[in-house]
C-alpha cells in the first residue's frame, strides 16, 4: 500500500514523498529508520495497475513463516542475540514485505520492545496464536524451544493443508479444461453442423435438437451468461466476507457429502494441534481455547470454542464444555476427559491431533483415487453424448445420399 508523508530529515529540512509498505506501522518504522521525524502520513492515491506490484505475489505465504520460524529457532539454539537474528534474516529475506517487517521487528527490539510485542504489530503475518506462543516462551525463558515448537506446528499444519489443496488441483484443472473445450465446440463447431443439418431437410433427433438449442443460446447470449457468472461470483465473494457469509460458507464446507467429512477432520486436527502446542508452552487453557477459536478458520468451530470458553470460565471441565457443541465428536471429548483425569491433557491432544492428521491424509488419498475414475466416466459420457448428437445425423445424411 502506498503512503504519502511529510517529515523532517536529519539535516532539519522538510521533505515530502511516498513509501510503499504493508501497513502504516511498517511505513512509519521504515521512515524512522532512515532518520526522518514524521509530521504527517496518510494513505496515498491509488497507483495505476500497470505501475503497482500484484499483491498476490507480494504476500507472505505460510511457507515463508514456516521457514522463518525454523531459522529463528536454529539461531536461538546457536546463542545468537534476538536483534542480530532479525537483522540477519531481514537481510536474507527474498520476500520484500517480509524483509520490511523483519527490519521493523529488529528496530522495535533494539528500542527495548519484547519480541512478542514487536511481532504483534504485524497481525497480517503473525497470528495471535504465534504471538502468544512467543510471549509464553519469553516469560518461561525458553524462547528457543518455543520457536522450535512453532516451526514443528506450522510444518505439520502446512503439510496437511497443502496436501488437501493439492488433491483438488488435478480435478479442478480437468473440469475447467473440459468446460472450455465444451464451450468452444458449442460456439464454433456446432453452429456449422447446424447449417448442414438444416440444408439436408431430414428430421433431426431430439437429443441433437437439444444440443443445437444449447449452442444457439451460447452464441446469442453467451456474453450475458459470462457477465451473470462474474456478477454472481463477485456477490458471493463479498457475501462470504460478511459475518453471515462466513457462517454460511463454514456450514457449507462441513455439510458437502464426503468433502465435508474431510473438512471436519482438518478442523479437528487443527484444534487439537493448536491446543496441544499451547498447553505444552504453558499457556492457560482459557487463553488457548480463545486463540484456537481465532485461528481455526471456520465460524462453526469458532462458535463452538467460544461456547467452551464461557463454560470453562463458569467452572465446567474442558470435556463437558466441548460436549455442548454437536460439531465436536464423542471420541475427541472422551480423549480430552481422559487427559484431564490423568493430568496428561497436552499429550492426549497430541495423540488426537496425530490421529486426525492421519485421517485427513487417508481421506485425501481416497478422494483422489475416487475422483480420477469418476472424472473419466463423467467426461467420457459428456463427450460421447455430444459427439453422438452431432455425428449420427451426419451419418444419416451421408447414407441417404
Description of the molecule:
The protein is mainly alpha-helical and 401 residues long. The chain has 3 domains: 2-52, Ubiquitin-like (UB roll), CATH 3.10.20; 61-156, Up-down Bundle (Receptor-associated Protein); 167-401, Receptor-associated Protein, CATH 1.20.81. It is 76% helix and 5% strand. The protein has helices at residues 24-33, 55-58, 62-77, 82-92, 96-110, 115-120, 128-140, 143-200, 206-240, 243-255, 259-280, 285-295, 299-313, 318-323, 330-342, 345-400; strands at 2-8, 14-20, 37-43. It has a 3-stranded antiparallel β-sheet, with helices on one face. Strand 1 and strand 2 (14-20) form a beta hairpin. Helix 3 crosses helix 4 (82-92) and helix 7 (128-140) packs antiparallel against helix 8 (143-200). It is extended. The model is unreliable at 46-57 (pLDDT under 50).
Amino acid at each position: 500500500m502506498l503512503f504519502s508523508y511529510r517529515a523532517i530529515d536529519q539535516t532539519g529540512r522538510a521533505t515530502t514523498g511516498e513509501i510503499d509498505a504493508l501497513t502504516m506501522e511498517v511505513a512509519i518504522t521504515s521512515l524512522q529508520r532512515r532518520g526522518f521525524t514524521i509530521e504527517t502520513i496518510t494513505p496515498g492515491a491509488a497507483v495505476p495497475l500497470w505501475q503497482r506490484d500484484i499483491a498476490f505475489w507480494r504476500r507472505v505465504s505460510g511457507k515463508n513463516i514456516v521457514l522463518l520460524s525454523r531459522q529463528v529457532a536454529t539461531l536461538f539454539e546457536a546463542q545468537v542475540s534476538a536483534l542480530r537474528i532479525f537483522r540477519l534474516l531481514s537481510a536474507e529475506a527474498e520476500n520484500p514485505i517480509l524483509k520490511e517487517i523483519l527490519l521493523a521487528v529488529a528496530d522495535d527490539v533494539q528500542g527495548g520492545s519484547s519480541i512478542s510485542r514487536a511481532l504483534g504489530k504485524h497481525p497480517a503475518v503473525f497470528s495471535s496464536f504465534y504471538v502468544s506462543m512467543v510471549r509464553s516462551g519469553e516469560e518461561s525463558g525458553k524462547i528457543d524451544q518455543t520457536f522450535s515448537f512453532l516451526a514443528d506446528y506450522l510444518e505439520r499444519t502446512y503439510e496437511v493443508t497443502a496436501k488437501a489443496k493439492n488433491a483438488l488441483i488435478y480435478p479442478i484443472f480437468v473440469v475447467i479444461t473440459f468446460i472450455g473445450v465444451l464451450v468452444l465446440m458449442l460456439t464454433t463447431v456446432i453452429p456449422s453442423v447446424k447449417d448442414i443439418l438444416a440444408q439436408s431437410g431430414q428430421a433431426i433427433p431430439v437429443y441433437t435438437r437439444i444440443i443445437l438449442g444449447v449452442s444457439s443460446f451460447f452464441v446469442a447470449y453467451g456474453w450475458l451468461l459470462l457477465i451473470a457468472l462474474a456478477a454472481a461470483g463477485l456477490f458471493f465473494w463479498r457475501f462470504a466476507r460478511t459475518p453471515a457469509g462466513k457462517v454460511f460458507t463454514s456450514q457449507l464446507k462441513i455439510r458437502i457429502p464426503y468433502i465435508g467429512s474431510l473438512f471436519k477432520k482438518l478442523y479437528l486436527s487443527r484444534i487439537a494441534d493448536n491446543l496441544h502446542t499451547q498447553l505444552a508452552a504453558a499457556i492457560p487453557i482459557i487463553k488457548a481455547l480463545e486463540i484456537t477459536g481465532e485461528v481455526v478458520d471456520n465460524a462453526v468451530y469458532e462458535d463452538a470454542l467460544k461456547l467452551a470458553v464461557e463454560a470453562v470460565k463458569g467452572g465446567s471441565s474442558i470435556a463437558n464444555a466441548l460436549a455442548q457443541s454437536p460439531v465436536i465428536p464423542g471420541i475427541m471429548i472422551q480423549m480430552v476427559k481422559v487427559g484431564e483425569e490423568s493430568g496428561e491433557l497436552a499429550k492426549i491432544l497430541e495423540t488426537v491431533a496425530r490421529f486426525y492428521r492421519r485421517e485427513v491424509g487417508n481421506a485425501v488419498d481416497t478422494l483422489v483415487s475416487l475422483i480420477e475414475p469418476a472424472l473419466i466416466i463423467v467426461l467420457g459420457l459428456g463427450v460421447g453424448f455430444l459427439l453422438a448428437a452431432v455425428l449420427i445425423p451426419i451419418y444419416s445424411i451421408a447414407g441417404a445420399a
